Amino acid sequence: MALERLRASLAECPVVRFGEYEYFVHPITDGIPLGRPEVLDEVLTELARIADWSRCDKIVTAESMGFPLASGVALRVRKPYVFVRKRRYGLPGEVSLKQTTGYSKTDMFINNVHPGDRVVFVDDVISTGGTLLSIVKALRTIGAEVVDILIVFEKTRERTRMEKELGLRIKTLMKVDVVGGKLVERT
After folding, report:
1. What's the CATH code, domain 4-185?
2. Measured between alpha carbons, how far is 54 from 139 in angstroms, rounded to an integer?
């Protein structure tokens, strides 16, 4: 069965609260509990499989847990990657954006994306959609074309609304919910 290791890893996930927000802690999303190479390999293999990489010039991800995903997929599909950072570098062409999630607000900065670049956005989880919406809008402001969106965990029930707002399909590997303080797969 596809993603059997990822599915089995859900049982080990603690859930913590940030105010009213229930945040699940998983090796793919947080590096805690201990990350297993076989789970990461399974996730990277599936992410590499579900996109049309012929239309991609660069892989873009957000700091910080997208880093192992984007770099791992980049090795498989032989495309360069860009990390959207929470730190300003002041480099020529740097673009800033505001990111709002279910539990924080921060500034983020994009470097090495240029007008005409065709990018695939890869990230660990979509929950409120704040990170995804902010980054896609900023990439479009630059003049880049977002050709695909790949997310490991879908913790939202707002995907259809976000897809309409972005005009793009969001591809996720697994839908999850927090139920009774535990992370479970949603079917």
Report:
1. 3.40.50.2020
2. 19
Token pair recorded at residue 39: 């789970």
Distance CA 57, CA 116 (A): 9
Phi/psi for 117 (5° steps) reads -65, 140
- Model confidence over 23-56: pLDDT tens digits? 899 999 999 999 999 999 999 999 999 999 999 9
Distance CA 164, CA 66 (A): 24
* Dihedral (CA of 49, 51, 52, 55) sign: negative
Q: Using CB atoms within 10 A of its CB, is residue 123 exposed (0-12), middle (13-18) or buried (19+)? A: buried
Question: For the whole model, what pTM was predicted?
Answer: 0.94
Q: Give residue limits of the domains in the chain.
A: 4-185
Q: How far is CA 117 from CA 76, 82, 129, in A?
A: 20, 12, 23
